[in-house]
Amino acid sequence: MDKKTEIEIKEALERKKTNLESELSRFAKKDKDIEGDWDTKYPRTKEGDLEDAADEVEQYSTMLPIEFSLEKQLQEVKGALERIKKGSYGICETCGKQIEKEKLLAYPETRICLSCQGDA
Ligand SMILES: [Zn+2]
């Protein structure tokens, strides 16, 4: 991979990371004990207001899968940045070949090449 592409991809990843973190911080807080883990804020319920409480519990269960999905994406992005640092970025985890540049540009946190993805 040429330097220009690498920089381009790194910038795309950094942007993605920032976006995901700000998305997450809207309804989750960073877990202080576990690096990269986020916890959905459990909504505060007004005492004695059962209807509101039910709404908030419902909201919480709606947010939880979103939190997991964002958290997973964030981990993928961080993993990709880590691989750039280590110099192992862009190598398919399944077949060990160079991942197509087009795929890396479209989906920079990818870990497998197009043909392996096709087999999966
Ligand atoms: Zn492959």
Write out key terms for the chains shown.
mainly alpha; 2 strands; 4 helices; 120 residues; two-stranded antiparallel sheet; binds zinc ion
Write a brief caption for the model.
With 120 residues, the protein is mostly helical.
What does this structure look like?
The mean pLDDT is 87. The two termini are 25 Å apart. Helix content is 62%, strand content 5%. A hairpin with a 7-residue loop joins strand 1 and strand 2 (38-40). It is mainly alpha-helical and 120 residues long. It has 4 helices and 2 strands; from the N terminus they run H-E-E-H-H-H. The structure holds zinc ion.
Describe the protein's topology.
Elements: H1 3-27, E1 28-30, E2 38-40, H2 50-86, H3 101-106, H4 114-119
Antiparallel strand pairs: 1-2
Helix pairs in contact: 1-2
| Continuous helix count | 4
Termini Cα gap = 25 Å
- Low-pLDDT parts are none
Please indicate the percent range of residues in DSSP E strands (runs of 2 or more): 5-15%
SSE class: mainly alpha
| Radius of gyration over all CA atoms, rounded | 19 Å
Number of strands: 2
Number of structural units classed as domains: 1
Shape: elongated
Helix content: 55-70%
| Topology pattern, helix = H, strand = E | HEEHHH
Q: What are the distinct ligands in this entry?
A: zinc ion
Q: Numbering strands along the chain, what is their spatial order in the largest sheet? A: 1-2
Mean pLDDT: 87
Largest sheet: 2 strands, antiparallel
